[in-house]
Amino acid sequence: MSFCFIQFLIAIAITSVRCGEVEFTILHNNDLHARFDEISASLGACTDALKNSSSCFGGFARAAHVIRDARKEAAANGKPVFYFFAGDIFTGTEWFTIFRMEICTTFLNILSPDVWTIGNHEFDDGGVDGLAKFVKSIRAPAVIANADFKKDIGTKKSVILNAKNQKVGIIGAITSDIKQICDFTGDSIFEDEIKSINMEAEALQKQGVEIIIALTHCGYEVDKKIAEKCPLVDLVIGSHSHSFLNSGRMDPIHPESKAIEGPYPTMIEQPGGKKVPVVQAYAYSKYIGKFDLKVR
Question: Which CATH number applies to 7-295?
Answer without folding.
Answer: 3.60.21.10
